[in-house]
Amino acid sequence: MAIPKTKNISNAQEPTEGYWAALGEFIHHFSKVERMLHIVLRQQSGADARVCKAVFSGLRNDTCRDYINRVCDAMGRSELKARLKGVFDQLGQISAARNAIVHWGASTLEDDSIVAMNEFLAHTDEKFRQIPLSTVILRSMIDDLIKINIHLAAEVWKMQPADSRNPNLMETIGPTLSSAWRYKPPQQSPLGKGNPNRDQVQPPQTGASLPTP
Questions:
Q1: Which sign, positive or negative, has the C-alpha torsion 177, 38, 184, 84?
Q2: How wide is the angle at C-alpha 8 spanned by C-alphas 6 and 13, nearest 5°?
Q3: What is the pLDDT of residues 124-145, one digit of tens each?
Q4: Calculated CA dihedral for residues 76, 77, 81, 82, nearest 10 degrees
Q5: What is d(CA 116, CA 43) in angstroms, rounded to the nearest whole number?
Q6: How much is the pTM?
Q7: What SS3 string covers 122-172?
Q8: Exposed (0-12), middle (13-18) or buried (19+): which is 161, by Cβ within 10 Å?
Q9: Which residues of 180-213 are buried (b: 16+ CB within 10 A; e: fewer)?
């Protein structure tokens, strides 16, 4: 298996302080989205708060997404499910990157680039994966997590009584809701077909940061 070469610990260049700060902020915003998913699930289910705590506590974000979709199917809320599809698809991509970071760890390649890869777990070439990491990439995912949180908060807002809503909220967050996603997941290529470092390098991502809700 042609695994990309990494540096020895003694020779590896430590990521910059900006990278570590972005990584911490990424984890922070990921947890905020997980909390908001639980709020949406509880609201859409219509169950008593005590029942929700008993039944839904401990659900991870992928299961929360699945449950919300199942509730939409059961309650005939096809419009809500359609609105959330793009949000959930993007969150799924970011969740995959998050899982790679948390469970595989980060490695420094010979060109000083940083990746999370499963070379010690992949039992076949087809199972090998690597996720490029950098401060820019983390910032792109952070902006998308902020946008996802706003999308979910908007759905919570729509379920509130009309007289308790902020009438200007949708106008304020409209530009964020309609903005494009920033994080673009890398295309994974089987090992042995070209240079894996070259095939899976993610181009720099640019774009203005979204406001924190």
A1: negative
A2: 80
A3: 888 888 899 999 999 999 999 9
A4: 100
A5: 36
A6: 0.80
A7: CCCHHHCCEEEECHHHHHHHHHHHHHHHHHHHHHHHHCCCHHHCCCCHHHH
A8: exposed
A9: ebbbeebeeeebeeeebbeebebeeeeeeebeee
User: pLDDT digits over 155-199, tens only?
Assistant: 988 877 666 667 777 777 888 888 999 999 887 655 444 334 433
* Contacts (Cβ under 8 Å, ≥6 apart) of 103: none
Residue 175 in tokens: 């530009």
Give me the residue spans of the domains in the chain: 17-199
CA distance 60 to 163: 33
